[in-house]
Each structure stands twice: as structure tokens, then as C-alpha cells.
Amino acid sequence: FYTYSDFIAAANGFPAFGSTGSLDVQRRELAAYFANVKQETGTLQFIREINQNNVYCDTRGGVSCPAGAMAYYGRGPLQLTWNYNYDAAGRAFNMNLLQNPDQVAQNGLLAWRASVWFWMQNSNCHTAITQNQGFGATIRAINGVRECGMGSETQPAQNRINYYRDFCSQLGVSPGENLGC
């Protein structure tokens, strides 16, 4: 499901992804992205969130949860969640992901596109790395208080940090500062 060619095609749709700042910053961004992907997908083995009982519907932002639509649990490399994220990603790709969020789990290219879109457009991940806020800011942007709300890192957050350090090492770049929550 997760192919290299689909990832490259998706990344090419976002020219600033992995190409902003110095070579070290670019490498840190790719390391950060893939560290989060590795944690979210269990090393690329999961396409859908394991616990699919979470509906993730919040209408406070004015985005409905249509009757008959599937739950907005996580799908894809960064496990896109919440009705408002599916709606915004769908609008970005001229698709109705609000009515059919499972399209993200049925199309590898779309899954990668949705994850890079989230990284670049709808979270603070890209700017966290390119503006030297540190890897910990990407953890907060993706999972907030679930992983960073207790004053120290949870095990999933620590996994992300370990993966990030490993990817940085493989890419020959120091991980920088502010790795944790």
C-alpha cells in the first residue's frame, strides 16, 4: 500500500516539503516526518487506526458529520483524523473526503498526499522544523495532550523521539534542540 513512487508523487505536490532551509534543516524535516509516520503506522504496517471506535467528530468549527458517513478515525501515514481535517483535505484535493473518509485508506497516493498536506498545511509540523522549534513541536501538533499533556513524554512520544534520532543519524544530521514535549 505504501509505495515509494506514491510518496514521491505526493511530496512533489508540496514543493517546500523537505526543501526549505539549509541541507541540515531539510534532512531534519524528512527525519521528523518519517519518525512520526513510523509511530503512527507501526512501521508502515497499518493503514487504518487500530481503535476504530473513535468517531472524531467535532462540529464546533462548522464542519458537520454527515449521516451515513464513516467515522473519522485515523487513516494513512500520519493517521489523518477528525471531520474537519477530512473536510479540509478533501477541499484541497477537490474530493468529498467528509462523506467518504475511507478513500484515504483505499488509495496509496491519496494516503501519502493527505499526510504531506497535513504536515504542510494543517498543522505546525513543517514550520516547527524549518523555524527551529524542534522535533517536540511536531509531536504536540500531531497528538497534543495525548502524548505531551502530562509534563513528560509518554511512551509513544518517546518512541517518536527515538525514531527521529535514528533517522537523523541515518541522514547524517544532528537532531537539534527541543526533541521532547
Q: Can you walk me through this structure?
A:
- With 181 residues, the chain is mainly alpha-helical.
- It has a domain at 4-44 and 123-171: Lysozyme (Orthogonal Bundle).
- The protein contains 8 helices and no strands.
- The protein has helices at residues 4-12, 23-41, 83-92, 103-106, 108-121, 125-130, 135-148, 155-171.
- Helix 1 (4-12) packs across helix 5 (108-121), helix 2 (23-41) packs across helix 8 and helix 7 packs antiparallel against helix 8.
- The longest helix has 19 residues, at 23-41.
- The mean pLDDT is 94.
Give a quick precis of the structure.
Helix content is about 50%, strand content about 0%.
Strand content: under 5%
Number of helices: 8
Distance between the termini: 31 Å
How much is the average pLDDT? 94
* Low-confidence blocks of residues: none
Residue share in helices?
A: 40-55%
| Global Rg | 16 Å
User: In CATH, what is the class of one domain?
Assistant: Mainly Alpha
Order of helices and strands: HHHHHHHH
Largest sheet: none
CATH topology of one domain: Lysozyme
**Total strand segments:** 0
- Basic shape: globular
Class from secondary-structure proportions: mainly alpha
CATH architecture name of one domain: Orthogonal Bundle
GO molecular function: chitinase activity
InterPro entries: Glyco_hydro_19_cat (IPR000726), Lysozyme-like_dom_sf (IPR023346)
Protein name: Glycoside hydrolase family 19 catalytic domain-containing protein
Organism: Selaginella moellendorffii
